[in-house]
Amino acid sequence: MEKLIIQSDTSNLIEVERFVSAVCDTCNINNYAAAISMSLLQAVENAIVHGNGNDVAKRVTITSDLCKGGVFFTVSDEGCGFDFQKYGEIPEGEGSGMGIYLMKTLSDGLSFSDGGRTVRLDFVINGIEASRALERIVALRNFYAPRFVNA
Predict the structure, then answer these.
(1) Shortest CA distance to 52 belongs to which of 80, 24, 16, 14?
(2) Residues 6 or more apart whose Cβ sits within 8 Å of residue 112
(3) Which tens digit of pLDDT belongs to each residue from 98-120?
(4) Main-chain phi, psi angles of 37, to 5 degrees
(5) Domain 2-147 CATH (choose: 3.40.190.10, 3.10.580.10, 1.10.8.100, 3.30.565.10)
(6) Contact at 8 Å (CB) between 51 and 117?
């Protein structure tokens, strides 16, 4: 198991990127680094901003571990938690739930525990299905397409 503990300051997100890169290097899964990094950065940013309220006295703990068929990451904050069940659907616009949508789309499993203070992101590594990869590509294109206008 690998562990990273950071202060609740978004300037520390670079440390999370380094952490993901190191885990992917160690596990020889660099081709999954983008999906893992994007998902994990959303989880950590949510923990910093929403969970810990940008309070630098509070910490965010990120762990990674191998499991049968892949790797998983957990992100835990020191906040009050939240009602994660109301964020299960795809958001219709900017704002609340967009980060959870990205985490759900880019990972193979998303779960919450500890009253919403901990999120677990699972990534299937052994033999990822081509259809799942295509679903992710389409979902990301749909997510970003409305934000860009061709000039």
Answers:
(1) 80
(2) 84, 118, 119, 120
(3) 788 889 889 999 999 999 999 99
(4) -60, -45
(5) 3.30.565.10
(6) yes
Residues 13-22 have a mean pLDDT of 96
DSSP letter at 19 equals: H
Domain ranges in the chain are 2-147
pLDDT at 142: 78
Per-residue pLDDT of 21-60, as tens digits, reads 999 888 878 888 999 999 999 999 999 999 999 999 999 9
d(CA 84, CA 86): 5
pTM for the structure as a whole: 0.79
Decide if 123 contacts 36 (C-beta within 8 A): yes
Query: Which tokens sit at 31?
Result: 């081709």
